[in-house]
Amino acid sequence: MADDVSNLRFTKATPVSSSIRQAIEKIDGYYYVMDSASNSLLVKTDDGNTAFQYPLDTTISTPVKEIKHDGAYFWTLQSGTGHFYIRRWFIQNYLCKLQSTIDLTNNVDDTFSSDTMAIEHYHRKLTAPATISGTSIELDSTDRMPGAGGKLFLGPSTSLGYEGLYEERSVASVSGTTVNFSGDLDYSYATGDMCHFNTKIWLFNNFNRTASNEGAVYEIDSRIADTLGTVTIDSDAAWGTDLTVYPGTEFKNITGATYATYNYYSPSSGVVTPTPLLMFVYSSNLLFLDTSQAGNSVLDLAAMQEVYKADDANLWTVLNITVEDTYSDVETDESIKIKRDTLYRLQDGVTYGGVDQTTNSTINYAMTTMKPYVFSIGLSVTPAVISADSTATAAVVATVRDQYNLPVSGVSVAFTENDSVDAPDGAEIVSPISTNTNGQATTTFTAGNAEKTVRVTATVTDIIPA
Fold first, then answer.
1. What are phi and psi of 136, to 5 degrees?
2. Is 354 left (phi over 0), alpha (psi -120 to 50) or beta?
3. Is the peptide bond before 383 cis (omega within 30 degrees of 0)?
4. Does position 339 have pLDDT exceeding 70, yes or no?
């Protein structure tokens, strides 16, 4: 299945080959770019034009390597000499205001070199009204809710008299679906109003602490950024208990990552479940990491990405990936599923119609579905040589797999043979055949009465299974 690259083009101030990247986050159909040249947060349409911009209240002197949104705050990753900066921003009164900065300074314990990060975040809905001066709310789920001291962002409110208002509250305790706060609510909220929270920052570092032979993903407690101002990390002691490091060569030189709820298909159980996952591009694969599991090991699932150039040997560089935020982790509405299943890859070029396409002034987002689709077909014939007697037969098996290298069942496979002579003098093959649970469609080839080489072709018409 080819990637859709139509209309998704963005201008860069420097050539694609430059080390300067443009990071983009997709929210409600728009693309958000934090631009160091204009010192503003740009809101772009899918043709690359700017629909609106929010001036920044703080000058940023270096380009933004990554930008993420957690439902309330924007998070950015920037580099400086001997430093990396993770910053948290908030839009207020048409101004994008800096809230806090984590200053990651190279030191004897850590060397920092990173191109991407992801923010682990969640969205919940109120299942009952919450009134001003109240100390608790009822939510549709408290799964992965932060414990005491964690913060929830409520709003914007749709309650009469409080429309558009919002606030942030500290969690005192959680009991069932009830969240108790350590202070009174400033405003009232209606059933269905949103609640957002973040828990972790996942930073892909090209060093495992100071070792350069492998990378590491740094699990950082996002509460480290709750305090307004700057937190400087210049030693192992400065992390306190806020850091856990997971080393591995698969975490080195990662340029695109995101955190989103994905309709995850478990190969072991065969069940599809909306699951929050850390996703990142490694070589030509999209890998998944379930951060709720002990050890945070990479799942036994990888999605092949169509990032190969026309020569089928070299890869385009993936600069950024994003999944449009649906602001819900529990809805099963079909439109929500479609958004969850669409991955956007920002690349330094694309291959479209078998032709490499790139320029030095634009870069492209390539859209691809994460819903399983037919990615490959393998064909085998047993035996490979049979008698030319119009009765000998051979078993022809087509094995259909998706981009996760898992079998695709229930799709129709059309078999054809290139014998120019019709049966009974020529060869014959039974078609079409549907694939079984192993992704295999088995048919019978019957020989003609003349010795020759006959080519058998298998074609799948149902690219995306029902």
1. -155, 165
2. left
3. yes
4. no
Number of CB atoms found within 10 A of residue 126's CB = 22
Rounded distance, CA 289 to CA 293, Å?
A: 9
Share of the chain above pLDDT 90, in %: 56
Asked whether residue 304 carries a pLDDT value surpassing 70, the answer given is yes
> Which pair of tokens denotes residue 57?
């209240």
The mean predicted confidence, pLDDT, of the chain is: 86
C-alpha 241/C-alpha 55 separation (Å) is 35
Contact 55, 34 (CB under 8 A): no
Q: Do the beta carbons of residue 150 and residue 200 sit within 8 Å?
A: no
H or E element, residue 334: helix 334-340
Bin 223: left if φ > 0, else alpha if -120 < ψ < 50, else beta.
alpha
Classified as helix, coil or strand, 306 is coil
Please, are residues 121 and 198 in contact by the beta-carbon 8 Å criterion?
yes
**Residue 49 contacts by C-beta under 8 Å, 6 or more apart in sequence?**
none
Tokens found for residue 431 = 């078609």
Residue type, 114: S
Cα 354 to Cα 376: distance, rounded to the nearest angstrom: 17
The values of phi and psi at residue 74, to 5°, are -95, 140
pLDDT of residue 189: 98
Taking the C-alpha atoms of residue 120 and residue 296, their distance in angstroms, rounded to an integer, is 13
Looking up tokens 């409520």, which residue turns up?
154
Determine if the peptide bond prior to 276 is cis (ω within 30°).
no
Cα 127 to Cα 137, 156, 171, 193, 213: the distances in Å are 8, 15, 18, 8, 50
> What letter does residue 266 receive in the DSSP assignment?
P
CB-CB contact of 67 with 322 (8 Å): no
- Token pair for 239: 């992390």
- Rounded to an integer, what distance in angstroms lies between the CA atom of residue 191 and that of residue 177? 14
The amino acid sitting at 303 is A
CB proximity list for 158: less than 8 A, separation 6 or greater: 189, 190, 192, 193
Phi then psi for 364, rounded to 5 degrees? -125, 145
Distances in Å between the Cα of 349 and the Cα atoms of 153, 233, 337, 345 are 38, 36, 28, 10
| Cα separation, 239 vs 250, whole angstroms | 24
